[in-house]
Write a structure and sequence with these properties.
This protein is an alpha+beta fold and about 675 residues long. The chain has 18 helices and 31 strands. The strands form 3 sheets. It has a 17-stranded mixed beta sheet that branches. The longest helix is centred in the C-terminal third of the chain and has 19 residues.
Length: about 675
């Protein structure tokens, strides 16, 4: 008896390309493993024998293979319409079984993974008849009726691990192999094959040009369903060194090309899309992230100044707190959306240069050529900066507040009661403004809206994210956490805000007021203390240090109080867990973090979604850089073309907070985004 094999079923309706997919997968896997392949069409007893064939397959083929034994079975002679030869299928390290019913309910306990292949009805019929010609045509309707009856009672697609839409263009096998690596029961068997495929090589080109970033993004990724622009829209010239460092690089990428992937996580379920295939797994998100990031798979090329060397980009939503000490709350938006970029453009604003990055793949040369042309066009076109909404085109959305002025002030008072009772000493209370945007030209288009937003409110951590129907437009000034490839860690919390004023003397007075505010300093120092503790869990002992405390930084619409905490990651510790130890940002919870999150859940009585989470990247060299998702508009497109808009806002409540001042701070923080939309803060 052989050791039990890894058994993978490839199921799907007739004509969906299962046979070709199975043969090509087997050929790839045989380069490093012993593989057996079984086709169910060899065992069905005739054109009306789907149910009987499934039963035969499970009992005479699948059961012995599961035990590591040879399967002896009787084939079907399709010409004589009778039982044919006796055959043997021997076990191997990996067994592929393909055909209609390969993943039937009776087979499921014996399988390690299920792949569901699909294609359009027209393509399926054409392929099936092209393969079997006149033999199949008279029986197509009969067989299709059996398939429909079986699937009505046994919903295989709903429980499949991997879904692949097979366009028969040769890409499905590689897409499926990439998806299978995320299935815990299968991944160990694929290690030799994946190691051979993932000997990644980074291609990098430097171009001495300063393209207009918005035009470049639109040209390269404007048509991509999933795309990310981490946009350091604040000009680093003349800034303090710390602020200039945060504003140096912009990253533009999508999930196209050979290595592109996209992932969505909601309430413990992770769905990864890779080309034509998708795979769904259950489990904590940070554990999943640790499996795909944190090991140094690539080093930066010579003279390349940025820490990003391709990898995952997107957002982590606030409700991932369920994995870091918070309660389990469902959000309307995914708890995380990331894409894997196998190609990207990095703009170095300090040097005035552009870097093209691509993993070496058959399509890399074509993309690099296209990217060079796009950079040249965006650098040379006169007046090339794209404009946002033209005046009078869209209708300014009418926002409503989750909390009235009186209601928010009452929650501030309740938070202060919790502080007085010793349950917390700082509560970062938030609320949300929401609006419905109509379909058509009067509605809110995410792309021009973001262009207006970045023009009015440039910020070091501005970003535009598009994940299908979901768009995120952020002008965040705050870094959540940076992890360098060499293990250096940095957090830069913001606590303390004052509005800007067009009158210089008034503006200077507002800045001075913030700088001298004992309350704001107390808020900031509390969060600094919290983050020192968060970082210490994974830091080299003695490496945690506060290098800046309560410094004042000014942005287009606000003055902010910023501190910097540095540490060094202990070698060998999982980097995703280091991120989790700090998540969500203490500046958006208060302290102590876990007990305060429970208080916030009761007071706010609603999920935060993207807001208060993090936006940024997880690079293939082990680096990460994440901002806090504040000053962030979330646009969720609806099926009818309309959209829901959401803007989260809030502030830190301490024992000496004034409810009126806390409410005014909310209005101040909302102004930058609302003004870009031509919208007003809702009246109480």
């Amino acid at each position: 008896m052989s050791p039990a094999p890894v058994i993978i079923a490839i199921d799907g309706r007739s004509g969906s390309g299962k046979t070709t997919l199975a043969i090509e997968l087997a050929a790839r896997l045989r380069e490093h493993r012993k593989v057996s392949l079984f086709h169910l069409e060899d065992i069905y007893p005739g054109w009306n024998g789907l149910a009987a064939g499934i039963e035969r397959y499970v009992t005479t083929v699948l059961s012995p293979l599961r035990r590591g034994e040879s399967a002896e079975w009787v084939s079907w002679d399709w010409e004589r319409h009778y039982d044919g030869d006796a055959r043997i299928t021997r076990p191997a390290e990996i067994v592929l079984v393909e055909g209609v019913g390969a993943a039937a309910a009776a087979a499921l306990p014996l399988l390690d993974a299920v792949i569901w292949a699909d294609s359009s009805d027209a393509d399926r019929r054409a392929r099936a008849l092209a393969r079997d010609g006149n033999t199949y045509e008279p029986f197509w309707d009969q067989w299709a009726a059996q398939e429909a009856e079986w699937l009505a009672a046994d919903d295989v697609p709903a429980r499949a691990d991997v879904h692949v839409f097979n366009r028969a263009d040769g890409t499905a096998p590689d897409d499926v192999l990439q998806a299978l690596q995320y299935i815990p029961a299968v991944a160990p068997a694929l290690l030799p094959e994946l190691a051979a495929r993932l000997g990644l090589q980074l291609l990098a080109e430097r171009i001495d040009a300063q393209p207009e970033a918005g035009q470049l993004f639109a040209e390269l990724f404007g048509g991509s369903a999933n795309a990310v622009w981490l946009d350091s829209s604040l000009d680093p010239a003349g800034l303090a060194p710390e602020a200039a460092e945060r504003s140096r690089f912009s990253i533009l990428a999508d999930d196209g090309g050979r290595f592109g992937q996209a992932v969505r996580h909601s309430s413990g379920r992770t769905r990864v899309s890779t080309g034509q295939a998708s795979v769904t797994t259950d489990g904590p998100f940070f554990r999943w992230l640790d499996g795909v990031w944190g090991r140094r798979a690539l080093r930066a090329p010579e003279a390349y100044p940025c820490e990003f060397t391709l990898g995952w980009l997107g957002y982590l939503g606030y409700e991932l707190k369920r994995e870091t000490g918070g309660n389990d709350v469902a959000a309307a938006t995914p708890d995380a959306c990331l894409l894997f970029a196998g190609r990207a453009v990095v703009l170095d604003h300090a040097e005035g240069t552009t870097w093209l990055l691509s993993l070496d793949a058959p399509d890399a040369g074509d993309w690099l050529e296209m990217a060079r042309a796009a950079v040249a066009a965006a650098a040379s076109a006169p007046g090339s900066a794209p404009q946002g909404n033209a005046p009078g085109q869209p209708t300014a959305p009418r926002f409503t507040a989750r909390d009235t002025e009186a209601g928010y002030k009452a929650k501030v008072t309740e938070a202060q009661r919790e502080i007085a009772e010793g349950n917390t000493y700082e509560v970062c209370l938030t609320t949300a403004l929401t609006a419905a945007s109509p379909a058509g030209p009067q509605g809110t288009d995410p792309w021009p809206t973001y262009l207006d937003l970045r023009r009015r409110n440039p910020a070091p951590f501005a970003s535009f994210l598009r994940f299908g129907e979901l768009a995120v437009a952020s002008t965040s000034p705050e870094r959540f956490l940076q992890i360098a490839a060499d293990g250096r860690m940095r957090a830069e919390p913001i606590k303390g805000t004052r509005p800007r004023d067009t009158e210089p003397d008034v503006d200077a007075a507002l800045r001075q007021e913030l700088e001298s505010s004992a309350k704001d300093r107390a808020e900031n120092i509390m969060i600094v203390d919290l983050l020192r503790n968060d970082l210490s869990h994974f830091a080299v002992p003695g490496s945690v240090a506060v290098s800046r405390l309560c410094a004042i930084e000014s942005y287009a619409t606000v003055h902010q109080m910023v501190s910097t905490i540095d540490a060094r990651l202990r070698p060998g510790l999982p980097r995703a867990e280091a991120v989790a130890a700090c998540f969500p940002a203490g500046s958006m919870t208060g302290a102590p973090k876990v007990s305060t999150m429970a208080i916030l859940e009761r007071l706010e009585a609603a999920p935060r979604g993207v807001y208060s989470g993090a936006i940024g990247y997880f690079s293939l060299n082990g680096a990460a850089d994440l901002s806090v998702a504040i000053r962030t508009l979330v646009i969720s497109a609806l099926d009818d073309g309309a959209a829901d808009l959401s803007l989260g806002v809030g502030g830190a409540v301490t024992a000496d907070s004034s409810p009126q001042e806390e409410y005014e701070e909310v209005r101040t923080k909302a102004f930058g985004v609302l003004s870009a939309l031509g919208a007003q803060f809702p009246s109480a």
